[in-house]
Write a structure and sequence with these properties.
The structure holds two protein chains of two kinds. Chain A is α/β, with parallel strands linked by helices. Chain A has six helices and eight strands; from the N terminus they run ββββααββαβαβαα. The radius of gyration of chain A is 17 Å and the shape is globular. By secondary structure, chain B is an alpha+beta fold. In chain B, strands 16, 17, 18, 19, 20 and 21 form a six-stranded mixed β-sheet that branches. In chain B, strands 1-2-5-4-13 form a five-stranded antiparallel β-sheet. Classes of the chains: A alpha/beta, B alpha+beta. Chains A and B meet through helix 3, helix 4 and helix 6 of A and helix 1, helix 2, helix 5, helix 6 and helix 9 of B. Chain B: Pfam families: NIR_SIR, NIR_SIR_ferr. Chain B: Keywords: 4Fe-4S, Heme, Iron, Iron-sulfur, Metal-binding, Oxidoreductase.
Chain lengths: ~170, ~550
Amino acid sequence: MSLIKDDRKVADIFTRIDNDAAMPESGSVLVTAERLEAEWEALASRADPVGVIWPNNRPVVDLAPYLSGLAVVALVFPIFRDGRAYTQARHLRERHGYAGELRATGNVLRDQFLMMHRAGFDAFEVTKPGDDDAFTEALRRYTMFYQPAVDGRQTVLRQRLHSRGIG
Amino acid sequence: MYIYDQFDRTFLQQRVAEFSDQVERRLAGQLTEDEFKVLRLMNGVYLQLHAYMLRICIPYGTLSSAQLRMLAHVARTYDRNYGHFTTRQNIQYNWIALKDLPSAMADLATVGIHGIQTSGNCIRNTTTDHRAGAVAGEVDDPRVWAEIIRQWSTNHPEFTYLPRKFKIAVSAAEEDRAAVLVHDIGLRLLDDGNGRAVFRVMVGGGLGRTPFVGKVIRENLAPEHLLSYLEAILRVYNAEGRRDNIYKARIKILVHELGAEEFSRRVEAEWESIRDGYLKLDEVAISDIRSRFRYPDFEALQDAPSELVAALMNPAFARWHENSVGRHKVPGYAIVTLSLKPVGGPPGDATAEQMDAIADLADRYGFGEIRVAHEQNLCLPHVRQKDLPELWRELDAIGVATPNVDFITDIISCPGLDYCALANARSIPLAEALTERFADLDRAKNIGRLHVNISGCINACGHHHIGHIGILGVEKNGQEFYQLTLGGKADENAALGQLLGPAVPYDGVVDVIERVVDTYLDLRQGEDEIFVDAVKRLGVAPFKERAYVAD
């Protein structure tokens, strides 16, 4: 598995802690939603960063109380064609103002990188061989975007108006 | 006509390049069939019974003559010389080889047409009234709004992996010719009483195995809020639509399970948080889209010019004129429907030669513009009335002047078992048999307005639920049977048909329909009471009583 963050391959400093695993004394951890809710006080007092893996069938409004204490929110694509996490990502970024790492995890493939990026993801757990090296190319595949999204890329309309000296 | 500029063309080239790369990776084994399937579907590529099928969208049903010629070129070069127009203003090619797809797509892209989002669980081609901009009484041109929706929904970063496909239709005229009530979202442009256009928003309509008529969830939506409101609907659906069962995944099921009121409440809550955000359409944005539509430079003419009046002495011309020519909003002009429903032919097919000839006629007589109708016919929306006699001779020569528009032989049909991997039964041969039985034009005219819709399976691509007579192919012990429904309607008073009675084997369908029609002729209150109104008045019982009894 490769982790791509801010367009580069990086080491993943987070350890995944399952529901029944022991919590290490120190180090960055990525916990389940259940543990986040049950053990928040202890998690919030840790010196090292804490993140959560949030399932795609729960609204992220439930995550709102914890967001300021989280370094990573990992949203799940159980299969690449299950697109619920795109909506969760936009809610986190646009409604809840979450500015930390937003990680795509699960069945994360190169043909979806750009849409994920546009929806607000900035970190990608990539498992398919070759897809990590194709990341930069995938993000540059398009220069034309018809609708505004989280990424701030200029829309076709704005480009067009700009080219005419309007706006 | 909406004119593509360099930005739209660049986008299309990038899309073609992306798909070419995906085809290469599939052929090299880097993409699994499961991964590739979703990507090819979103480019309009289906795997059918015998070959790949390519579905090309014709946004809001408007084509230029150059685009139609390119459709002819693709039919001739990569397929078997014909294309099939569908009920959603698309064209399908049934015999394209996978290796030819990128070339066909690149050719189409040169004239700004493509198969993007004609399939897959994404927002599909936004459709509208094929008479938009030509018919009187519209508060605004619905194509402008369909184009705004098309742009917003293209490669949408949030709504490309929805629970299921998603179809939007817009109409603005008094008569709804876009079947907006049987779409996931239906939009009607209405006058708010002060000459300002506003939208009525309907959700949860649809056919398939659980048909519903859409429910109104909002009245008087100001146009500047259209996209934020659509985004709110789609967002609720993307988050909450069912993904556990493909047959319950359409938005109509979510609306039905939550109830329209609760669904509407959730949409409104979502909308409140985004309505004044970056999707709000300002006048600059709307006028930019509007300015890219080119309208014909109409001459100042009078209705009923002498050329037309003289030609009406010819009974064959007069028959066609009465049937296939509609009123235009500009005096001296007319809207001409080209019937793709010849007797004994498959509904909605056009050959490359026909497409080329129609493109030439559009240039000569119709400002180079062609429309594709939801009923699988073509249309020249702006023809000078004095040109009608000449145009008629030319259309007749290429076989698209059958005066059967809206008659019993103007059949809507899916491709059925002859092409489709999902079908249980044949559709096209049945349609052909029906057109032969009712080939007599006087008889068809006497029967009057009667829409027959045929689907080869429960997925309802032939919209059988909303046919005045609906025919659904089912399989019984390995044999083709057909269920008949009566009284369906696709218009502004959309209704689902009622089951007539037991399913009928293939060989019996035409006879049963003939007896249903004879019953109507016996029971109607004069010629003004069309078939579907008689069914509404009488119910199904008197038809059922006679339909199954051989004479």
